[in-house]
UniProtKB/TrEMBL annotation:
Belongs to the P(II) protein family. SMART domains: P-II. This is Nitrogen regulatory protein P-II. Keywords: Nitrogen fixation, Nucleotide-binding, Phosphoprotein, Transcription, Transcription regulation. GO terms for molecular function: ATP binding; enzyme regulator activity. The keyword Transcription regulation applies. GO terms for biological process: regulation of nitrogen utilization. It comes from Chelativorans petroleitrophicus. The lineage of its organism: Bacteria, Pseudomonadati, Pseudomonadota, Alphaproteobacteria, Hyphomicrobiales. In nitrogen-limiting conditions, when the ratio of Gln to 2-ketoglutarate decreases, P-II is uridylylated to P-II-UMP. P-II-UMP allows the deadenylation of glutamine synthetase (GS), thus activating the enzyme. Conversely, in nitrogen excess P-II is deuridylated and promotes the adenylation of GS. P-II indirectly controls the transcription of the GS gene (glnA). P-II prevents NR-II-catalyzed conversion of NR-I to NR-I-phosphate, the transcriptional activator of glnA. When P-II is uridylylated to P-II-UMP, these events are reversed. Homotrimer.
Length: 112
């Protein structure tokens, strides 16, 4: 089992969700986050005053999948989230040792 975590631009959330749904992936967790990568933020002008925006709004998507689906999930997220602009985000893949569905007690792949 793998945990695929993606940090993407907020307006790409729906496209990513649809891409994962097409793969048959059910359930994901979404968190609103702030951060920066290589660009280290940017400057904006508001009412004539320039100010630095150090942390940019992003969305963190986490989805647990069977190991066989991990690569397809990464490809789907990358295609759906890509704008070609700086700040498109990153995707990380972690191994999951075990999982338990609390309601039924199902474990590992059955719990997904």
């Amino acid at each position: 089992m793998k945990l695929v975590m993606a940090i993407v631009k907020p307006f790409k959330l729906e496209a990513v969700r649809e891409a994962l749904t097409e793969l048959g992936i059910q359930g994901l967790t979404v968190t609103e986050v702030k951060g920066y990568g290589r660009q280290k933020g940017h400057t904006e002008i508001y009412r004539g005053a320039e100010y630095a925006v150090s942390f940019l709004p992003k969305v963190k998507i986490e989805v647990a999948v069977a190991s066989e689906l991990a690569e397809k999930a990464v490809d789907a997220i990358a295609r759906a989230a890509k704008t070609g602009q700086i700040g498109d985000g990153k995707i990380f893949v972690y191994s999951i040792e075990n999982a338990v569905r609390i309601r039924t007690g199902e474990t590992d792949a059955d719990a997904l």
